[in-house]
Amino acid sequence: MRHLGSILLIGVLTTGSWLVAPSAGARAVDDGRGDADVTRAAYDWLDADTPNDGYAITLVRGRSVRSVVRLLSPRRDLGPMTPGDAYGWALDRYDAWPHVVQVERRGPGVVIIDVSGFPSDRQLARLSRTGVVSSFGTTVELDTYVTVARRGRVIRQFDTGFRPPRAGALPEERGLGFGRKGVDPFSPAWALNERLTLIHVSEDWFSAEHPTYVLPGVA
User: Fold this and answer.
1) Residue pair 147/156 in contact by the 8 Å Cβ criterion
2) Sheet strands (E) in 43-198
3) Going by C-beta distance under 8 Å and a sequence separation of 6 or more, which residues neighbour residue 30?
4) What residues form DSSP beta bridges with 138?
5) Cys-Cys crosslink for 185: which of 41, 50, 144, 177, Cβ 3.0 to 4.6 Å?
6) Rounded Cα distance, 81 and 84, in Å
7) Chain segment 170-199, per-residue pLDDT in tens
8) What is the pLDDT of residue 89?
9) pLDDT at 19
C-alpha cells in the first residue's frame, strides 16, 4: 500500500507559504467540536498553497495528548510556535531537515500537524489502537492522500484528487465530491477527517501557536 511516509519531501526546496493570519470568518463558538455531516464548504479556505504546499494533518480520536506525544517519542520540545514559525525552524536546518510536528488537544480529540514530514502508515495504525485516526497529507507535487486507521490497522487510503475506489468505501465519504470536476482535493479531505473524528479544525485555530516537537530521525 502506498503511504505518505514514502513520499519524497520535495517541499524542502521551497520556502512554502504557511498560513499565519487569522480569518475574519470564524465560527461563533470555536470549541473544536465537529459535525458528522460537515461539508467541504467548511474548509473552503484551503488551496494548493494554503496552509502550505506540503504538510500532513492528522486527527486522533481516543487518545490523550500525553498518550500521543509518548507514542511519537519526540527528541526535542520547541515550545509553542505557529505552523509558519515551526516550518521556518525546520527550513533553517535544511541540511538535517528535522521532522517537526505540532500536537494539541482540540475538541474531543488531538490534532497532529506535520509541518516538515509525513506520518507513516505504521505510525497511524499505532495511533488508532484505542480509537480512530484520519490523516491527510499533500506535497508540492500534489500527491494528496487521505489515510484512515481504526483499532490498530489502516482501513482506507486513496488519492483525494480522484474518485475513491468503491471497494472499502466509508459512509462518511458520501457527498464530499472527491475527484469530481471543479472539486479541489483539499477541502473534502479535511471534511472527511472531521466526519470521522468529530474534531473541527478552523483556520484561526490552525494558524495559532501550538506545542511543537522534533521527532527522531529525519522526515
Assistant:
1) yes
2) 55-61, 76-81, 98-106, 109-114, 132-138, 144-150, 153-159
3) 200, 202, 204, 205
4) 55, 144
5) 144
6) 8
7) 999 999 999 999 999 999 999 999 999 999
8) 97
9) 59
